[in-house]
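Late entry, written up from scratch paper. The run itself happened at the end of the previous shift, but nothing got recorded in the book at the time, so transcribing now.
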Amino acid sequence: MGLDEASTGTLSKAQREQFQTRGWLLLEDAVDPDLLDALRRDMHGWIEQSRAHTDNYGSTINGRPRFDLDPTHSADHPGLRRVNAPVEISEAHLRAATDSRMVDAVADLIGPAIRFHHSKTNAKLPHTRTPVRYHQDFAFTPHSNDDLVTVLLMLDEVTEQNGCLEVVDGSHRGPIHTLWHDQRFTGAVSESVERTARSGATRVVGPAGSACLMHTRLLHGSAPNDSDLPRTLFICVYSAADAVPLSPNPMPSRFEGRLLRGRASGRVRSQSFELELPELLTGTSFFEQQATVD
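Output as recorded:
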């Protein structure tokens, strides 16, 4: 969408300009307070449920476990770090992902017609490390064009101490970095690229209910959570309706491809780029892929 085109009115022109220039923006009050409370209750229930398990559990549409546990997980110190496709098991998560202010904001950026791609919840419970190595989402979910937005909804207050998102301003306009090293798909950029990225990264913090809207090619990662506070993100990925997937969805659900705003044109839009296709995930989450990085 061009800056002068009609929008839902959720984002100002200045916010849209920031997204185009920096590759991300922070949206406050991305969902209403009642919905935020419902999302937090769901997550609390899943954490309590995880105490009864010693290994990844549950099932998703492609047969992989739904709930991913950190290696340090125990009943006394739960380490639930990922819920795959929570929209399939929670009405609150489905509503947030498909009918909320953050969806309208995405339509302002890459609409008017947008589709739902996938969702997950990433959690860093207190004193559970779970770092995320630097990467670009587009290398996991390539499409015919890069009009994709990742929305990271903060279910908890996110601070510099509890493992906040770190982004590299403007990197969405730069190269698509490989996630393959020594013939292995690691899900992370090289150490040299990460070292440079960290030195100039911006830390994204905000109150619960805020959301970071991030361009699919923005270079980002996050540090461990060594604090006493949880850091939970409900993450949804959206595409322009004319962006066609080039590889299988790493986190499929029955809602994949649902048109959420606008009308489908029946057209495919493509742009010129080169990348190495991702390796289809066989484990529970990409944390296992990144764990192979030395």
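The CA atoms of residues 174 and 217 lie 8 Å apart.
(Scratch paper discarded after transcription.)
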